Amino acid sequence: PRPLGVGDPVRHRRQAVSALLESYHYEPVHELLRAVGDIERILARVALRSARPRDLARLRDAFGVLPDLQQTLAPVNAQHVERLAKV
After folding, report:
1. Which own/partner pairs from 74-79 qualify as long-range (CB within 8 Å, at least 24 positions apart)?
2. Residue 3 falls within a domain, yes or no?
3. Of 60, 70, 63, nearest to 29 (Cα)?
4. Residue 40 lies in domain
């Protein structure tokens, strides 16, 4: 990932992390994200037409976790997290 620099993106990220820690939602989110894996890498392999069946299975599993992730993030009170939960 690229460095964020200064300004609003950094502030929004800090607020999101603080909200997750304060609301005790960090652990459930962490566990769900561990199940998701590296979607960006899998999508790159799909785009390059070098994806293997295992990659497609992981992508399928990641999509299956998204509703649970959305539900877990819904009560977190941070603008950035709320926006992610609605996507």
Report:
1. 75/23, 75/25, 76/16, 76/19, 76/20, 76/23, 76/25, 77/19, 77/23, 78/12, 78/15, 78/16, 78/18, 78/19, 78/20, 79/12, 79/15
2. no
3. 70
4. 8-86
Residue 2 covered by a domain: no
Q: Which CATH number goes with the domain that contains 25?
A: 1.10.1420.10
Please check whether residue 44 lies inside any domain of the structure. yes
Contact yes or no for 30/72 (Cβ under 8 A): no
Give residue 36's pLDDT: 84
Separation between Cα atoms, residue 55 and residue 3, nearest integer Å: 28
Q: What does the block give as tokens for 34?
A: 């561990």
pLDDT in tens, the chain (87 residues): 555 555 677 887 788 778 777 776 778 888 888 888 889 999 999 999 999 999 999 999 999 998 998 888 887 777 767 776 676
